[in-house]
Amino acid sequence: MAEPPAALAPAQPDDKPSTYRYTSLDTSARSIRLLRLNSNKGPVKCELVTQQLEHGAFTPYEAVSYVWGPPDLCETISVSGVDMPVTASLIRMLQDLRERRHEYLWIDAICIDQANTAERNHQVQQMGQIYRSARRVIFYLGESTFRINVLMQSLWKLQMGSRRGSTRPTNNNHHEKRHVPNRGRKASGRRFN
């Protein structure tokens, strides 16, 4: 995997604690953290890097929106060699995105220090810019079910209709089916323009 661009400053944990501790973000600037996801198999390994949104030369990233699921922090990922507790739905999503070779991601549950109220409030105020600045927005719905498949088909029909100038669903099933996951596979999508 390529080295991170010089514009990115690694967010380093303090003194290698047993669980990850965030370094403070500069709230006077438009600072965000990005998750750099390693593509190797096995346990999820990543690092957090900090970048400024206001500089035009920031690293391309993908913003991820996903179903949080149960709030229990029952799994761990390795962030710069230090464990970070995460939910089961988050680790499943990271494993799936890792297989698809997504490198730099913005995921609110990881990239925002959820225990720091001031930082969390500051980041929430920037979310519009965070999503607009992303190269792509991925929404992740979890394990595929019949209802999720129907939703994905409906969204695809709406997207195809809007590209033709109509917002009415189309009946073009040939093109849709290759984008809808089969039962038992993960359901994920992309930003619909």
Automatic annotation (TrEMBL):
Q: Where is this region: Disordered?
A: 1-22, 162-193
Q: Which positions fall inside the Heterokaryon incompatibility domain?
A: 61-177
Q: Compositionally biased, Basic residues: which spans? A: 175-193
Q: Where is the composition biased (Low complexity)?
A: 1-12
At the top level, the lineage of the source is Eukaryota
Provide the leader sequence positions. Answer: none
Put simply, this protein is called Heterokaryon incompatibility protein-domain-containing protein
Tell me what organism the protein belongs to: Microdochium bolleyi
